[in-house]
Design brief:
single chain; alpha+beta; Ubiquitin-like (UB roll); nine-stranded mixed beta sheet; binds adenosine-5'-diphosphate; binds magnesium ion
Length: 730
């Protein structure tokens, strides 16, 4: 019997791989930002006036004059040409989730058989990509307006390959954002203003606050040939069937284990590319599941960090390809083993170099820490459903609310020590504090925080939003998700919270004549009390937490169509409009797009599963069943009437196979019917719900029978590369 041709060939190809050996000729620090138009290259390649104008735009958001833009473009062009670039592109992040680029050559004929390289201010500042094929949620239809990309000087241009990439935002002519970046930039501005005003209570010289983001990217690597042998991986980015291997991750022998040589070569190659592009990658290791890995950079200003993550994902795919790997960013590529996330470590930093979520050396600095710490908790408390909505997607639903870290319930973990601090603060008296109370606070509560945090080692791995010493870690973000969206939401809700906080403190100072620190303590005390229900220190997976959370009134939206509703609630619209981050139209458009995306993903998965089950699994099952039938016939020939004594097990197997085939086939028919019905539904919300509740449940049922067949059928016949091969072939 011959093993299924595609599977066999793929495995053979994998065995014959020669690792691509990656040389490192230069120190990483010598490569760093070589292909980035950073401050240093800008200073070298443009006039002082042009340079200052870019710096003002970066630091204060001032507009760049058209003439100056020409000078900047000339400098950028010369720098790019000196690095071998031939093309330029406006690089942007439309709502497809991927990055977009359309390359134009610098080259232009100038007559008489001659040509030159051209690039001027207008090409730098604005472009009009034919954007009709990007998702817009009806915005452009409503306004009959075209979209354009506009240069974002706060993220430096870079060269990838031979193309100068200029980070841009993508907006409709009527001003609505058509991408992830425009709302992010608005949210970052909102949090800057709000946080700066509050930080001034503690240090008058603070003039700007940047949100910081350090993401941790998890991913799987699968050999390219093996990945291509699986139609589900190719078309859906994950396996839709496949029986668990006899050995999975139960031995925990992969986590932090030694990195396989082929993978190491890929990582080194990738890291060198990252250095050139200025992505400050720092950490690499094996993750929990076999063939799962993680990469993390040093944190950066949030806008840049978002760009760097989007860029990284793109570069990873390209580098993986030359190492004969396929990267899987899907949150749950394999059933039964760990999925992938993208922890978003977040904090706020002042232009004076202070991390506002890091306790300082004086009680006043610690009061500053407590202020930002407690306000963040309060912001999450008020907007937990929004945070869940911000990370909702068809693929992330496999993690959130599906017995995988973290749960769909958003809660905040702060650790035992800080819980004690907040408990003590809760007892602070209302109004003026007595001198004794002030001294106590200074010495015993606020004064003790740095020591408390030093040995704060109790980390809770099941919490979706955990404080980890000097930053919060939002762990609910999916590995595939663009960080911009969750960062937009988080920074917006914190901005709103800080504005409210400042108003309340100012009232106590002006009207009640409290001292500033007394007023701050008073407001914080009330926040601690009113935001208690969001704090949870226990096991986020436990059933008891689900019950407890329900009692507390926390939302527990397990599916994307449910979770997304929070994004267009009255409260959310009011919040985003007030913070000038997104308008009602933009929110509703995004909501439509996300629902549509959800529906399409499930639709594609349903089709792929149907095809594989009918075209691969059932024919193979029939083939094997025929072998069994032949066998029974032979036994009958030999033993005559007594044949059942020798063929009963085979007959049982034949029956089982028939049953599985019948189940698979009828379930596919039923699923297809549900799809047809769902497709008739006009309203996106209802359509997504139908796909979620009527179509998707068939996946597990169909898969169950396919996986049973995989266990029964001759391995040499099975056409689909098995989990043990996908996960353990190196
Ligand atoms: P782990 O979660 O793996 O235990 P670490 O404490 O080492 O990790 O940090 C994880 C990530 O947190 C790193 O990528 C780092 O860049 C990021 N990080 C550290 N400090 C900050 C900060 N102030 N703001 C944002 N991210 C930060
Ligand atoms: Mg982490």
């Amino acid at each position: 019997m011959i093993m299924s041709a595609i599977r066999f060939k793929a495995i053979e190809e994998t065995f014959n791989r020669q690792p691509v050996f990656v040389k490192e000729k230069k120190k990483r620090s010598d490569l760093y930002e070589n292909n980035v138009f950073n401050e240093f290259s800008m200073r070298e390649s443009m006039s002082k006036a042009a340079f200052n104008s870019v710096m003002d735009a970066i630091e204060c958001g001032t507009k760049i004059d058209r003439k100056i833009a020409d000078q900047i473009a000339a400098g950028m062009k010369n720098w790019a040409l000196s690095k071998g670039a031939t093309h330029y592109t406006h690089w942007f992040q439309p709502l497809t989730g991927a990055t977009a680029e359309k390359h134009d050559a610098f080259f232009e004929p100038i007559g008489n058989g001659r040509a030159m390289e051209k690039f001027d201010g207008s090409q730098l500042v604005q472009q009009e990509p034919d954007a009709s094929s990007f998702p817009n949620g009806g915005i452009r239809n409503t306004f009959e307006a075209r979209g354009y990309t506009a240069w974002d000087p706060t993220s430096p241009a870079f060269i990838y390959g031979t193309t100068l990439c200029i980070p841009t935002v993508f907006v409709a002519y009527t001003g609505e954002a058509l991408d992830y970046k425009a709302p992010l930039l608005r949210a970052l501005q909102a949090v800057d203003h709000a946080a700066t005003a509050v930080a001034k209570y503690f240090d008058k010289t603070v003039s700007k606050v940047n949100a910081t983001l350090g993401w941790e990217q998890e991913y799987f690597l699968v050999d390219k040939a093996l990945a291509y042998s699986r139609p589900d991986i190719v078309l859906a980015g994950r396996t839709l069937l496949g029986h668990s291997p006899a050995k999975g991750q139960q031995l925990d022998d992969h986590y932090f284990g030694s990195i396989p040589i082929r993978v190491m070569n890929f990582m080194r190659d990738l890291e060198q590319e990252c250095m050139l592009l200025g992505v400050p990658v720092k950490t690499r290791h094996n993750e929990v599941a076999p063939n799962q890995f993680e990469l993390a950079p040093i944190f950066e200003e949030a806008n840049l960090a978002v760009d760097h993550n989007a860029l990284l994902m793109d570069v990873m795919e390209k580098v993986a390809d030359r190492h004969y790997f396929r990267v899987l960013f899907h949150e749950k590529p394999f059933a039964g083993i760990n999925g992938s996330g993208k922890h978003n470590n977040w904090s706020l930093a002042t232009n004076t170099g202070v991390n506002l979520l890091s306790p300082g050396t004086t009680p006043m600095k610690n009061l500053q820490f407590l202020t930002f710490f407690i306000n963040t908790i309060k912001a999450v408390h008020e907007n937990e459903a929004l945070i869940r909505g911000a990370v909702a997607s068809a693929s992330n639903d496999h993690r959130l609310g599906a017995n995988e870290a973290p749960p769909a319930i958003i809660s905040v973990f702060i650790g035992e020590q800080l819980t004690k601090v907040l408990d003590e603060l809760e007892g602070v008296s209302t109004g003026k504090l007595s001198p004794q109370e002030k001294t106590d606070l200074k010495l015993n509560v606020v004064g003790k925080i740095p020591d408390v945090l030093l040995d704060n080692t109790d980390r809770n791995r099941t919490s979706p939003f955990a404080f980890t010493g000097n930053k919060f870690e939002l762990r609910a973000v999916g590995s595939k998700t663009n960080c911009a969206h969750p960062m937009t939401i988080l920074n917006t809700i914190v901005a709103k919270q800080l504005i409210e906080f400042k108003e309340e403190v100012d009232i106590l100072v002006d009207k009640k004549k409290l001292k500033k620190d007394e007023a701050i303590f008073n407001v914080l005390r009330e926040y601690i009390k009113s935001s208690k229900k969001i704090r949870f220190e226990g096991d986020g997976y436990s059933e008891s937490w689900e019950k407890e959370a329900a009692k507390r009134g926390l939302s527990n939206n397990k599916t994307t169509p449910e979770a997304l509703k929070a994004m267009i609630s009255k409260k959310a619209i009011a919040l985003f409009e007030e913070m000038k981050v997104m308008s009602k139209i933009e929110l509703e458009a995004r909501h439509e797009i996300e629902l549509e995306e959800y529906t399409k993903r499930i639709q594609i998965e349903g089709r792929v599963l149907g095809d594989i089950a009918r075209n691969h699994v059932i024919p193979t099952a029939i083939q094997y069943q025929n072998t069994l039938i032949e066998n029974v016939k032979g036994i009958k020939e030999v033993f005559g009437k007594e044949y059942t004594r020798f063929a009963s097990e085979q007959i049982e197997m034949i029956t089982q196979i028939s049953n599985h085939i019948a189940e698979i086939n009828s379930k596919i028919t039923a699923m297809t019917e549900e799809r047809k019905k769902s497709n008739q539904i006009e309203k996106q919300q209802l359509k997504a719900e139908a796909y979620c509740n009527k179509v998707k449940p068939y996946f597990e049922e169909i898969r169950y029978h396919c996986d049973k067949l995989e266990l029964q059928i001759d391995d040499a016949l099975w056409p689909l590369t098995k989990y043990r091969e996908l996960l353990f072939t190196k």
